[in-house]
Amino acid sequence: MHMRGLRFFKFYSKKFSNCAYNIMVAANGLVLPILGFASCIAFIYMSFGDFKLSYRRGPHLDFVTRNGTQFMVDGRPFYINGWNSFWFMDHSAEGDRKPRVSAMLQAGAKMGLTVCRTWAFNDGDYNALQISPGKFDERVFQALDHVIAEAGQHRVRLLLSLVNNLKAYGGKTQYVKWAWEEGIGMSSSNDSFFYDPTIKKYFKNYIKTMLTRKNTITGIEYRNDPTIFGWELINEPRCMTDPSGDTLQTWIEEMSRFVKSIDKKHLLTVGLEGFYGPKNPKRLTVNPEDWASTLGSDFIRNSKVPEIDFASVHVYPDHWIQNQGFEEKLAFVQKWMQSHIEDGHYELNKPVFFTEYGFSNLNKDFRPDQRDRFYKTVLDIVYKSAKKNRAGAGALVWQLFIEGMDEFNDDFGIVLWERPSTYRFVTEQSCRLARLQRNPQPNKYLKELCLQRE
Questions:
Q1: Which of 24, 16, 21, 17 is nearest to 42 (CA)?
Q2: pLDDT, the chain, mean
Q3: DSSP letters of 237-253?
Q4: What is the pTM of this model?
Q5: Phi, psi dihedrals of residue 253, rounded to the nearest 5°
Q6: Chain-centre distance for alpha carbon 403
Q7: Alpha-carbon distance 416 to 444, whole Å?
Q8: Of 261, 288, 282, whose CA–CA distance to 347 is shortest?
Q9: Minimal CA–CA distance to 85: which of 414, 444, 448, 334?
Q10: Neighbours of 86 (CB within 10 A)
C-alpha cells in the first residue's frame, strides 16, 4: 500500500476504534447508547463523506466561451496547447488499463497542456458504449464518467467527439448497419447516415443521452460540467455521394440545432478536416490536391452555421500530398494554416482550432527531426496568431501516449518525454501562450513549469 494511503488507513482505524470504545462505554450506562452510536456515524460521514465530496467538487473551472474569434475563460483570452488521446474511455473500462488514463492526464498537465480531445463514442464494438440503438452499457458509461472526473482533477478540459465518420469504434457504418439489419434503412450506403430519418433519430437519441448523462462520480450532468470544453458532432465528416455538399450541410444544420436545444453552455464544432468545397475558389490554391474538393464538405459553408461556435481544421501534409518533398510539405502547412486563420478572422468571425496535427513515421526517409520541425511550425503559427489577437485559437497534437502502449499506437503517436527536444518546445508553447492570456485558471504544474523557463 502507498505510504500516504497507509497513514490515512491507520489514522481512521484509530478513530474508528475510539468510536467503538465510546459505544461500549455508552452501553455500560455512562451515556445513552444511541448518542454514542450517532456520534460515530456522524464522525464517519464527516470524515469519509467529505473525502468523497472533495473529489466530486475538484478544482474550480469556468466554462469556456467565445467572443468573436477568441475563446474566453473568466473574461480573458484562452489559447490552447493540447493533445489527442482517443483511447481514454476504452481504457477506463478495463481495470488493468484504467490507470493509464490518470497517468496521461497528469503527464499532459505537467506539460502545461490544457485541452484533450477524446472519443465519447464506441458503437457496437468491443467495449461498446452503445450496444444497439438506444441501449447503453452502464459499465462503459461509468468509464467515461471516470475520464471526465479525472480530467477535472488535473484541470484538463475535454473536447468530446460524438461519432466517427470512419469505421473505427463503430462510426456511421454501424448506425447504417443497425437500420439495414432491422429492415428500416433507406440505403446500405454509409452516407445514408446523413439523410436516413431512422438513423438521424438513432443519433439524436444518442446525443440526448450523452448530454443529459449524470456523472456517477461528480453528480454533474455532462451538459452542466465545465470540465467539458465542448462537443464535436463527428470526426472528419465526408459525404462523397453528394460532392455538392448539400447533404452534409443539411445534416450539420439539423444536428447543431438539436445539440444547442439541449446544451447551451458548451461550445460546438463540426469536426472538419478543413477542405474547401467545389464552389470555393480556394479549392484551387489552398487545398492539398483536387480530390479534396469532392468529399462533400466545405470549410467555410459548414463552419458558418450559426450554432457552430468554432471551426475545426486538421493538418496532415504527409498523407494529403504524396509526391512532394518535406520542404514543400512544410510550405503547404504554413499556407494551409494561415488561410484558415484568415477565414476565421474575415469570413467567419469565429475561432479556428487545429484539432489534429500529425506527422507519420512511415514516410520514406523519415527522420525524427522532421517531425520536430513540423510540430514547431504548427505551434509557431498558432502563437503568432494569438499574439496578434487573430483567429488561430490553438492546436492539439495527434496523438500522445504513455510508455507501454505500443499495441495501441499508430504511425503518428509519440511519448513526448522520450524525445527531449520535442518535449522542450511543446512545453515552451504552453508557457508563451500562458503569458499571453495571463494564466486564466492555471494548474499548479503550469506555474512551476513556466517559472523554470523565466
A1: 16
A2: 88
A3: ---TT-TTSHHHHHHHH
A4: 0.87
A5: -60, -45
A6: 21
A7: 20
A8: 282
A9: 414
A10: 19
Residues 216, 145 contacting (CB under 8 angstroms): yes
> In what helix (H) or strand (E) does residue 208 lie, and over which residues does it extend?
helix 197-211
Whether 1 has a pLDDT exceeding 60, the answer reads no
Angle between helices 197-211 and 246-262 (to 10 degrees): 30
% of the chain surpassing 70 pLDDT: 86
Q: Is 138 a catalytic residue?
A: no
d(CA 96, CA 244): 47
At 34, list the grid cell: 444511541
What count of Cα atoms within 13 Å lies in the side-chain half-sphere of residue 78?
22
Catalytic pick from 150, 232, 273, 356? 356
At residue 15, the pLDDT reads: 38
Q: Is 236 a catalytic residue?
A: yes
Catalytic residue among 150, 236, 273, 428: 236
User: Please, are residues 197 and 126 in contact by the beta-carbon 8 Å criterion?
Assistant: no
**What is the spatial distance between Cα 305 and Cα 425, in angstroms, rounded to a whole number?**
36
pLDDT at position 442 is 63
pLDDT of 26: 39
Residue 44 vs residue 269, higher pLDDT: 269
pLDDT in tens, 129-160: 999 999 999 999 999 999 999 999 999 999 99
Beta pairing class for 352-357 and 311-315: parallel
